[in-house]
């Protein structure tokens, strides 16, 4: 393919710096820690790192509340460290993708400090202010982190909008000065040689608060086309938008190359499948594998050539997939590999979230005092006030809470899993003695080696990058099976989503050829009588 972009055959690794590797014993991960682990990431084989925010921040939302876009959080290091990371990664052909958080700033950003000085301040219009309505909030917009999205400012008698924490005031994108500030800041980072941007809640920047429109506002795509032209369009970078409400139709608007917006978006349709209709993420229902198959297959086929998928199970906001939809006890290793094989042989760019590649699990809490995450803590307080039972809230937190993904990376069996010599900012999962990088590296059958092999398969087989996808529908509900086809070659990928063995009869599939990868040792693949073990997954070429 002539028009291949570097990010199409790529695999991206997400680092949540606070929890990755501490180098100075303060209990908080840092840039030096990442630099020290580049060998490991190169060994895994990844193409780029998506770095969650490292900018200056008071950490109300762990760096997603930025007080200076052109400076580094002091706990993480200095701008020199950042430049060193970019350069040392580049020497290994690893690019650094920055997190672009421009829906909002911190309330400690100088723009907001100025803005709240009064209605006449030149920065006032950088944010969204409204007069009270009937002595109360302007309207019923809610914050993702519970409560009203409007916060009253005593001094001026007006409310400001915050779709997240009250310490994350929303920027006013209708103000062209704000957009220019964002472009300038992006160019500052592009000039430093970054490999692109992951764009935090980018679908919100076209909001019309007065009409209670937040996602997919009318000017959203115009803004993104401007952004592309004014900033990264001149560079060979990856841009991925975080777009919670995207459908395939909407995703094409962002990622159709002819429209000059983004490389791809994160879609979250599969992520909502264990959430009750009309409820919040905390209102749980069991996963129906049939729905998962239908949703992922739809995304695989509907983007066509006017878009590009990103593939992920995990990020810093989501529970660990092996605990969520797999079995993190008896079949932890098998189910972790099953999710890897199933996703990494699909079409799109896969994202691995730190620790996923060694099969890290959720870590349940007993008391809310053990939680660190603002979303979790605010929701707990709100639901307690509304009369929910404490046990039920804690249960939901253990299933869905964001701290699950944020416990420190488990490097070895030394105290704190080798993450820090100090007191870790968030509890280390006590299973670190068994589940850690060192043990994974030693064991050729580990989850790590499965991920490593999958990354290599993608690099060496165009069918993984470009092949057409077809879901196999004549299989039991718990079996996820698909074909990839490219230039006369066909691969079949299959996964058993249950703890029970399943026998399949698929004589029409023909003869199996070369075995590509699997999470069990098998002698052969016989489609007339195919016995799948609990959580078994494999890929095989058709003869
Ligand atoms: O997340 C957007 C977002 O909507 C999340 O808060 C999400 O709804 C929730 O966590 C699902 O569990 C992005 C970042 O990924 C998140 O870490 C930030 O807290 C948020 O934006 C605000 O910047």
UniProtKB/TrEMBL annotation:
Domain Glycosyl hydrolase family 13 catalytic: 14-406
Domain of life: Bacteria
Molecular-function annotations in GO: alpha-amylase activity
Record SMART domains: Aamy (SM00642)
Keywords: Glycosidase, Hydrolase
CDD domains cross-referenced by the UniProt entry: AmyAc_SI_OligoGlu_DGase
GO biological process, one term: oligosaccharide catabolic process
InterPro entries membership: GH, GH13_cat_dom, Glyco_hydro_b, O16G_dom_2, SusG-like_C
Cited NCBIfam families: PRK10933.1 (NF008183)
Family recorded in the similarity comment: Belongs to the glycosyl hydrolase 13 family.
Stated name of the protein: Glucan 1,6-alpha-glucosidase
Source organism of the structure: Paenibacillus riograndensis
